[in-house]
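Lecture 7, part 2: worked example. A protein chain together with S-adenosylmethionine.
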Amino acid sequence: MIFQPSTDSRHIPVMLMESLENLNIKNSGIYVDGTLGLGGHSEEILKKIDSGLLLGIDRDNGSIELAKKRLSNYKNFKLFHDSYKNLKNILFKLDITGVDGILLDLGLSSYQLEDNQRGFSHKHSSELDMRFDNNIDSNKADDIIKKYDLKSLTKIFRDFGEERNAYRIAKMIKESDSDINVLSITSMIDRVTPYRFRVKTYSRIFQALRIETNKELEHLENFLSDFTDLLNPGGRLVVISYHSIEDRIVKHKMKDLKKEKSIELIFKKPLIPSENEVQINKRSRSAKMRVGEKIG
Ligand SMILES: C[S@@+](CC[C@H](N)C(=O)[O-])C[C@H]1O[C@@H](n2cnc3c(N)ncnc32)[C@H](O)[C@@H]1O
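Predicted complex, written out as structure tokens:
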């Protein structure tokens, strides 16, 4: 059955209250939601900025269309089909010299995960696409599997999936002559993975392929290299990450910036969701939030 996206494909915004508090929102401020998704965080930001402006960015056009509907009661926002790594250019074109807060809620939304055509989930048998932006002609996850050699594929599974069995899984995939799709990949994983580890292994391999397909870490590192130029003094960056690889990148960059006296860290350790939130929304269980404030 073809997936019918709608605003009912509910993605519950993660650490919503913590995001709003830590963005330190002023009614007339300019805020950026760099990972708009279905606009869950953006909608709540808009409720707090009658005379301010919200800029929402997402690489996924389908998400932007859904967010546009959700935010249709508001006028003070602009949406961009782009990567948050290009925020500098976006602000330049708008003649905006600084913003008061930037939110990055990394990873993918439930809307993308549940889409049974895009290959983000090991639960839906489909093509292995995994591109956030499926309007551009870039490698899909199945192209990566076909084009990369055994060594490169092993490295991706190890570095981006933290998968111990990376070599055996990559070898099984490279040596197979089956068509590459979600079902064939999960059955190849099954052949080299004990039953009780399978679901976790699928998740690690799918995460690795998604990160490589979208060059997610490059986009994050690129953004982190110059975001302080884009914040007004006292402006804040709030980042929610969902795996240790991303969190490590954010943690180290924020520490370096603190040493350079460019930002203040609002918390030494990352904030995590409350037990109550994790119970209501399982997706939030791995979330970690880090917050930096630009020194004025
Ligand atoms: C976890 S979801 C955000 C959900 C959103 N906060 C909400 O509550 O509806 C992450 C979103 O970030 C988008 N994304 C991932 N990498 C991106 C990038 N480099 N630039 C812009 N958007 C990106 C994905 O397409 C996805 O829609």
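The first strand starts at residue 30 and ends at 33. The mean pLDDT is 95. Keep this in mind for problem set question 3.
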